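Obj: model holo form, ligand = S-adenosyl-L-homocysteine.
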Amino acid sequence: MTTTTMPSSEKVLRTAYQESVAAYWNAEKDPVNIRLGEVDGFFHHHYGVGDYDPSVLEGPEETRDQRIIEEMHRLETAQANLLLDHLGPVGPEDRVMDTGSGRGGTSFMANQRFGCHVDGVTISEQQVAFANAQAGERGVSDRVRFHFRNMLDTGFETGSLRASWNNESTMYVDLYELFREHARLLEHGGRYVTITGCYNDVTGGRSKAVSRIDEHYTCNIHPRSAYFKAMAANDLVPVAVVDLTEQTIPYWELRAKSPVATGIEEPFLTAYREQSFHYLLIAADRV
Ligand code: SAH
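Output (holo structure tokens):
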């Protein structure tokens, strides 16, 4: 059964900024997300990792677009699998949380892999409705549930989670507030994982390419250092840090040539190649 209580503030959207992020995701029907999700019913709002098969860019012309889309989807699913690989042992009776859950792709994959209970939280009511309908179609509504909640104040019970994660959703929030909430939710020894883009402290401040990504998504990309400071301040001790930058560049190269390119491909490629931006996985234990 769920162990939820109402969030301490009844208002899920607390700021004009959060309202604008919610409005963005409520309206979002981008083919780069929908057409890829339709390949096998796992809808992702994140990027891919790994090399692509170059033959998808060749003939026959009639099937080329669909083959590119399927290949991009395969790389996005590989990204979610990589995140789940870092969650540690999770059993069927354990509870895990997907914060900033989108249309639920990573949540369903976690339930399929571990058999565990999954709660997803997102500030988009459209996404909640979409993902809960999917849970119904998959026959897992008793185990996988999505909620219109703020990840900074989820209202779920303290110490109730074996694991939790943010798959490309940390750039919408203050990291100290976010990790305080994850640390509250996780049991002692529980695992937290994030995959995120962050800017490079070594090359200096926010580059022009990183600013263009922020502008495109109405988000605020954090410096790499901010993750470790905010984790250390909230009893989250990193156990693995994986730089996925090299592994995500092929996805962006393929996406730039795909029929579902959105125009943000060049800033990503520039930012990664000039090393002002990294794609990072961080796994941490709650102590
Ligand atoms: N993790 C998903 C979706 C990533 S897109 C995936 O990998 O497919 C970013 C998500 O963060 C969206 O679902 C958006 O609604 C959510 N989000 C942004 N700010 C949030 C907040 N304050 N609380 C909860 N969800 C938030």
